[in-house]
Amino acid sequence: MLSLKNTCIVVFVVLTVMGCRYAFEMVGDNGRVKSFPVTGQEGPVVLYLRSAQDDNIPGLKRLNDEPIEAVDFSRGCGVMDARITDRGLQYLSEPSLLPNVNWLGLGYCRNITDEGLRHIATMEKLKALLLQGCKRITDKGLVHLAGMKNLEGLDLRGCPEITDEGLIVLSELKNLRSLMLGGCKQITPEGVQKIQTLMPNCNVRKDDDRWKAHYDCDQYKES
Questions:
Q1: What DSSP line would sit under 20-78, residue for residue?
Q2: Which among 111, 150, 176, 211 has most CB atoms closer than 10 A?
């Protein structure tokens, strides 16, 4: 196995699995980005960018001719903290950077705040947004998400600052089909019932027991 500590550059390694290409990145001590073109295969590309820093994100523009539909900052949360902050999300949301992205995973990215959600809200093609374990997100951030008309799936599990009152604004998301709320300590059964009534076509789930049994990145992260 390659050691991240001995890796000098970011390398996008492409695999083909069930019609999708997966681009893994490895980041070394110098934090610089270097990639090679993703060519010669068919299917959408998923970028795994757990260790990418804010200043790495503009460099992804060299890949904007590729069919990149998903960006995931979640995978690898058990071994390292995410470096991405609101500033990195501002870069990521630039329309010319990765114009085909419709799936964004920000699980356990603990530097993300409500300001970061303001940038994400401008990504009009997003259909799925995963924010599990983003503990700095509050009701104010959900106000930004309310304008994402194409959003179909939203994962807010483990976001302790979200409340019943904050959920109400999400009823403006007419295309939302899945809303996950497990581990949101301030959301009550009454709040779940109210948002479900307002969004009859959305599957609203708050399974706290399942969330407790969920993979906890804090348990495995290296010190």
A1: EEEEE----TT--B------S--S-EEEE-TT--GGGGGGGGGGTTS-EEEEES-TTTT
A2: 176
Q: What is the mean pLDDT of residues 13-40?
A: 39
CB atoms within 10 A of CB 187: 24
Query: What is the full DSSP assignment across 119-178?
Result: HHTT-TT--EEE-TT-TT--HHHHHHHTT-TT--EEE-TT-TT-BHHHHGGGGG-TT--E
Say if 86 falls within a structural domain. yes
- Residue 176's domain comprises 138-214
Structure confidence at residue 164 (pLDDT): 98
Torsion of CA 60, 86, 165, 124, to 10 degrees: -30
pTM of the model: 0.81
